[in-house]
Amino acid sequence: MRRLFSLSAAVLLAATVAACGDDGGAALELTAALPEQVPSGTEIRIGDPAIQAVLGASGLDKELSEAGVTVEWANISGGPQSIQAFRADKLDCSAVADIPSLFAAWTGTSTKIVFQSVIVDPLTHPIYQLGVAPGVTVTSLADLRGKRIAYSAGQAQGALVLRVLQKAGLTQKDVTLVELTSTGDSYVTALGSKAVDVAPIGAANVKIYKGKYPGATAILTGIRDDASTLYCLTSAVQDAEKAAALKVYVGLRAKALLWQNDNPDGYSKAYLQAVQGLSAADAKDVIAADGAKGIPATWDNAIARLQATADLLAAEQKHDKLDVTTLVDRRFEKVEAEAAGSKVVTGDAA
User: How far apart are the first and last CA of the chain?
Assistant: First the structure.
């Protein structure tokens, strides 16, 4: 059970919070200011493996504990896993792209995005390339006509496939979409076994894919695909104690990404090698492919891109229209920008 707020904190929050049941903190309205003080012993359950490693390597984890925040880490990331954990009430927040927040809404799970980051040069450093199976000729997006393409409707890769078809002037009827959830190296294996002709694979894995399967190729999409978020159950940001803890976490998460930019060797050893199991050489290739992370000064551009994606998915996958401004908690926008300070990115990069 969490400890009660101190009297001073209770007085400070009295105008905006109301008492809840014994299992949670005081209720916090979504329009209320984020609390400044974290009650001692406050715990948040987060699936954010890369940042978990970076916080430890950088020493920023000490600032979490000094602020009174305890994190129960979960080895979870990505849409399907996180939504399942949300529904089972096993998780408060998870690191994902932007697509899971849409599918959470469409399937009845209320969430809020509390963190947005970008790649500083997103077209030069895409998250995905289109892997092409050995023996298959695809040198441009137009060549996708008639091909079998791996497709996962509820993941970022699925949304990218639809955006690629849109850019190429093709429809779903012009290709064969092969339903396949992207987990681990499932798409690389499907390509290597020629179960599909084309699949979006991590740009950082392209070199490994080509080395493993002679004749394998890959092409660029020319589409910005760098959306990266932390999204949380709405109930978590409506819990005053957890909201206070998340305010601290969001600020430190911004600092962690900037530390990662400045300390590639530290990030390589702490996460890519120690957690992901990559060799030092492969980790170096991944870092080069990933590019520098950026903290946007404003979420305006990210929200506009998310709305465009939501509109496309609603049309192509027969979902209800969705106003994505209901999926973001912009109280945290200023928190991460202030943490990044002069290192925020603006303009087209944001």
Answer: 40
Half-sphere exposure of 77 (CA within 13 A, CB side): 14
Using alpha carbons, select from 102, 120, 122 the residue that is nearest to residue 112.
Answer: 102
Question: Residue 23: what pLDDT?
Answer: 52
Give the full edge-to-edge strand order of the sheet including 217-219: 176-179, 148-151, 198-202, 128-132, 217-219
* Predicted local confidence at residue 40, as pLDDT: 87
> What residue ranges of the chain are covered by domains with CATH 3.40.190.10?
7-121+227-349, 128-219
CA-based nearest residue to 295, from 237, 232, 349, 230: 349
Place of tokens 């979902």: 319
Tokens of 177: 């979409």
Query: What does the alpha-carbon distance between residue 64 and residue 43 come to, in Å, rounded to a whole number?
Result: 11
Is 73 in a helix, a strand, or coil?
strand
Residue 303, both tokens:
């929200």
pLDDT single digits (tens) 164-197:
999 999 999 999 999 998 888 899 999 999 999 9
- What does CATH list as the number for 7-121+227-349? 3.40.190.10
Phi and psi (nearest 5°) for 342?
-75, -5
Q: How far apart are CA 116 and CA 97, in angstroms?
A: 9
β-strands 176-179, 148-151: how paired? Answer: parallel
Residue 227 to residue 49: CA distance in whole angstroms: 17
Whether the per-residue pLDDT at 82 is higher than 90: the answer is yes
Q: Write the CB contacts of 18 (distance below 8 Å, at least 6 apart in sequence).
A: 26, 27
DSSP-derived 3-state class of residue 23: coil
With contact defined as beta carbons under 8 Å apart, do 76 and 51 qualify?
Answer: no
Coil/strand/helix, residue 214: coil
CB distance 181 to 149 below 8 Å: no
Whole-structure pTM value: 0.89
Query: Which amino acid is present at 183?
Result: T
Residue reference for tokens 């681990």: 184
User: How confident is the model over 208-217, as pLDDT tens digits?
Assistant: 899 999 999 9
Fold of 128-219: D-Maltodextrin-Binding Protein; domain 2 (3.40.190)
Residues 6+ apart with CB under 8 A from 80: 154, 155, 181
